[in-house]
C-alpha cells in the first residue's frame, strides 16, 4: 500500500518499496529515451550525409514547422505540455541542423 504523505514519515531505515518501484520504472524509461535518441541521431546523421551529397540545404524550415505542429498535437492528446514538447523538439532539431551543417562542410 502506498505511503500516505500526510501520515507520519517512514522511519529512515525502512525501505520504501513503492518509491523504489517508481524509480526503477523511471530509470527504464530514461534508458529507452536515450536509446531512441541515439537511433534518431543515427538516422538523421545519414540524412545529413545524403543532403550533403545531394547538395540539399541542412535545414528544412517547412518540415520543421509541420513536425512541431504535429508533435504539439500529439502532446495535447497525451496530456503532455505542448510548450515543453516544442522546446524539446526544437533542441533536437537545432542539434540535427548542426550535424547537417558539419556534413555539408565536409
Structure description:
One of its GO terms (biological process) is salicylic acid biosynthetic process. The protein is mostly helical. It has a single domain (17-105), classed as Chorismate mutase (Chorismate Mutase Domain, subunit A, Up-down Bundle), CATH 1.20.59. 74% of the residues lie in helices and 0% in strands. Helix 1 (17-53) packs parallel to helix 3 (82-105) and helix 2 packs antiparallel against helix 3 (82-105). It is elongated, with a radius of gyration of 21 Å. The chain starts with 16 loop residues before the first helix and ends with a helix. The model has no long low-confidence stretch (mean pLDDT 90).
Question: What is the topology?
Answer:
Elements: H1 17-53, H2 61-77, H3 82-105
Compact description:
The protein has helices spanning 17-53, 61-77, 82-105.
What is CATH's topology name? Chorismate Mutase Domain, subunit A
Integer tally of domains: 1
- Helix % is over 70%
Quickly name the level 1 CATH class. Answer: Mainly Alpha
Overall pLDDT metric: 90
Structural class of the helix and strand makeup? mainly alpha
Give me the count of strands: 0
CATH architectural category: Up-down Bundle
Strand content: under 5%
Distance between the termini: 59 Å
Largest sheet: none
What is the global morphology? elongated
Taking pLDDT < 50 over at least 5 consecutive residues as the criterion, the unreliable ranges are none
Our count of helices gives 3
Radius of gyration: 21 Å
- What string gives the helices and strands in order? HHH
Amino acid at each position: 500500500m502506498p505511503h500516505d504523505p500526510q501520515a507520519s514519515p517512514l522511519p529512515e531505515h525502512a525501505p520504501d518499496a513503492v518509491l523504489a518501484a517508481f524509480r526503477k520504472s523511471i530509470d527504464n524509461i530514461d534508458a529507452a529515451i536515450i536509446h531512441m535518441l541515439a537511433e534518431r541521431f543515427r538516422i538523421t546523421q545519414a540524412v545529413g550525409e545524403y543532403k550533403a551529397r545531394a547538395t540539399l540545404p541542412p535545414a528544412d524550415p517547412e518540415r520543421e514547422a509541420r513536425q512541431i505542429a504535429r508533435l504539439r498535437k500529439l502532446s495535447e492528446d497525451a496530456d503532455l505540455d505542448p510548450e515543453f514538447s516544442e522546446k524539446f523538439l526544437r533542441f533536437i532539431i537545432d542539434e540535427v541542423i548542426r550535424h547537417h551543417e558539419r556534413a555539408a562542410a565536409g
